[in-house]
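HUMAN: Please help interpret these tokens:
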Amino acid sequence: MPMSYTDPFCHDGTERRIQRPKDQDEQKNYYSGKKKCHAVKNVLLINKQLEIQYLSPTHFGKVHDKRVVDETPYPLPQGSLLLQDLGFLGFTLEGVAIEMPTKKPKGRELTDEQKASNKAKARRRVFIEHVNSSVKRLRILKDVCRLIVSGVRDMAIEIGCALHNFRIRLNPWLPIPEPE
């Protein structure tokens, strides 16, 4: 009999493009090879009702999502379930069950059963991507941010998260579905 867990949580990283820094050392730190531009990065944690529970501190675009969550672990209730993608491979929290897709073995294919399992997990995990896009409704978060005043970029992402939570409370979305 499978162990019973509380409502699921889900986390994922989000990048925001910034203007290319003038200093060459800063350019190396902010350059994101994933998006081929200069960026800053945060990790969002959502609950089953798709409310943002945690926003990580802002990091350079060069920093990997897993390193961000390793540096700032967030407390989840004992026995909770955390949905994550393969970008967090190797990340664990004590007392928290982690659900992630099966990685394709090198030189081989996944079985049909593993593919079906990955598809079911992706159906549940896609909600964090919807939350990321909801936060980025603000143009300052979606387009290249040219503000260089200290703290303004962080304030913009905090406002985007607050507005997302406000919209969710006024007009709730469908929650993360139960596993099939």
Summary: The longest strand covers residues 8-17. Strands lie at 8-17, 31-32, 37-46, 52-55, 59-60, 81-83, 97-99. Residues 8-170 form one domain.
